[in-house]
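ping. complex inputs:
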Amino acid sequence: MSEMDALPKSRTAYVLERLKADLQQGVINPGDQLRQTAIAKRYGVSPTPVREALRVLAADGTIEYTSHRGATVRDFTPQMAQDLYRMRAELEGLACEVAVERMTDEDYATIVAANERLVRETTAGADSATLSLLNKELHFSIYRCTSPVMVEGIQLLWARFSPSVTLWSVGEFSRELDRDHVAILDALQRRDGPAARAAMHAHVMHAWELRQTSAELRATGASAS
Amino acid sequence: MSEMDALPKSRTAYVLERLKADLQQGVINPGDQLRQTAIAKRYGVSPTPVREALRVLAADGTIEYTSHRGATVRDFTPQMAQDLYRMRAELEGLACEVAVERMTDEDYATIVAANERLVRETTAGADSATLSLLNKELHFSIYRCTSPVMVEGIQLLWARFSPSVTLWSVGEFSRELDRDHVAILDALQRRDGPAARAAMHAHVMHAWELRQTSAELRATGASAS
DNA sequence: GGTCAATAGATTCTATAAAATCTTTTCCAT
DNA sequence: ATGGAAAAGATTTTATAGAATCTATTGACC
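pong. complex structure:
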């Protein structure tokens, strides 16, 4: 009851962090019932901050919250996953086009630096968690050139994934995604908005295809290399 | 302390409803400090459900919530408003394309019925609140043909507006928006996905232009009819 | 006269307890 | 034996009180 790792800004933030981590790690699975008293005892806090955290997750769409009947983790049908990726492709493509309109030279330098870090770690064979984080930083270094509302809109989509299938754990996939990034960076350098949009759109849909093949390999048993 | 209009599902939902209504009506303006004890006394509830409602609004992006410093209603710069409309155009355009893929004949009939209700009330000269609601129903009767995640993503964008400028209060604007709807419905009837996407995209950006001219008229004093 | 520190005030945040609500089990009647 | 109703149990929901935190004002020291 005294093992809060980092500086606990607030109990609610702490519970949110733990819940998201447990969702990503697969400790909590879709369809599970979330009982607030059980969560409170599990994390060593009172039910009040747990309730607030659940309300935030319900607003995100991560969980379903029905009155007096508790919260359940929402399940993802393949169709919903596809829709999420198509929404990402549209919004992040738009963000690239807007970024070209508002990007300063300094902003572009930051983006290039983020990309170099990712490529360096990819070739060095870093673990998938690190690569995934660096990839996120690269993407949002572009989106931050737009406006807070656009960044938040995209963040909400990124938050709604069950990242049990991390694409960056497959070496071949990582190299393909890195190649996509080069095309995006090129368009940004040329200040070509439509090209940047198209490249990002293709990149997100490419990630969707890779995710599908990854799921198929997992289903068949991953016999072929 | 006993004047809860409709059936109060929960105190939190009631507070959320009241807060959103006050935000739409202009009782609460951007930049205002939201003190939870004041809100609690104002609505006749305890601070606890107020806190939960504020957490939901913070997740939406409607308010800014800093620890121990209270909540403030976020201000909208013109650039952020423009970005919001551009995001709407992309997402709702995509939704139309996906709707064509999954729409049944029954779904289409529902959409046509919603449109007929809106046109009827427009020609009858109904108040702007009614027209705005019917317009929302028409739009979401289309989006509901996609999937829950897409509906929620669009709903989040619709929720983030300071609708002090209701386009449906101007007769000429209403007729223009109705004409846009005809083009969208035509594309849906022909099951032409790309055309439906383009029509919706143009419609949303059209609404953005009307909103801008409306703001200009308001600023100059609205002398010309 | 200006700046830093300390205290007072106010507000938020967490916890505990009581009230309302839902589900499940059990018992009675048909 | 089956269906329905009532009661008991469990869970959520709200309220209140105490603890922690931040801001502002006042005073002292440089």
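Confidence is low (pLDDT under 50) at residues 1-7 of chain B.
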